[in-house]
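Lab notebook, bench 4. Still working through the backlog of constructs that have no structural model yet. Next entry is a single chain of 349 residues. Request: give me the structure tokens for it.
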Amino acid sequence: MKLNNYFIFLLLFFGSFSCMKNNNPNIEDILIPQNGVFIVCEGNFNYSNASLSFYEPNSKLIENLVFLKANGKPLGDVAQSISIKNNTAYISINNSGKIYAIDINDFKLKGKITELSSPRYMVFVSDEKAYVSDMYSKCINIVNPNTFTKTASIDISPNNSEQLIIVNDLLFTNSWSYDDKILVINTNTDKLINTIQVLVQPRKMVLDKENKLWVLCDGGFEGSSFVGERGIMRINTATSTVEKTFIINNNFPLVDMQINNSKDIIYFINKDVYRFSITDSSLPQTPYLFAENKNFYALGIDPTNSDLYVSDACDYMQNGVIYRYNSNKEPLDSFKVGIIPNSFVFKTN
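Model written out:
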């Protein structure tokens, strides 16, 4: 259901939404719900058609292109991720080499971080310090989220960096593209202190309730010379050692992995959606949710009710579709968003 009728907006105002006014004809007024989910749509490489959507599950209302509408300019070239700190959402635009900071309550631009090569993910150490991963430069950038400035960098050559997870005083990052390492960095000294060998191309990481790190390795790009075994591994973050390795032998794409709010059930996409407990001794053989004719690409789990969100990237050129299911796998909603929806970030009070 598209939010393009201002009269409908006025009616919703008296519910859970609040209204903003703006006299700039190039900027639309957007009604902001208290709760909902940001959907990052990466767009096509070199096309500058990345976008940001926002969905309110109670009313089933979807607003697409919220960054463009709120700020009067496009988001940029390939949106990779969104990270929230306090009331600010930081959107990493990797091929544009910048991070936009927006207010989560009105989507208005607050600032931007530049001097970055290809920013991928961002994680916060404090209000004044955050780490930013980078696909192409052999370093992890240190930024001040308050002043929107790059302050330093950590040399991780010859590796690159992708996701970032902090456990106590340690930062773990997966060196994904054409690599097979998990890097461990001391957050007090900002020094690389350990390297963990994993399967080819560790694509996704999640942390469970026992502070064990689960790593999804996709096995390499099809047609590349850098290919190998793929699967899911469990790492003890206290000892930086691999405890379990589950090999996946089929040729279906391994593209995403997420963990529920209680951090004991893991979901992953291997064409279909699979689900397993962190105590299981093997991976499931039967899918939890069949893709059928859909191109499943990303997963999101609502922390308030465990609703499952699955994106369909379709043919990677047309607008993607989001499917929402409850914890019993019953379909609740479906709606279109931007091109290649790659991640979900939930806004809750």
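Notes after review: The longest strand covers residues 331-339. The chain has a mean pLDDT of 92. Flag for follow-up if needed.
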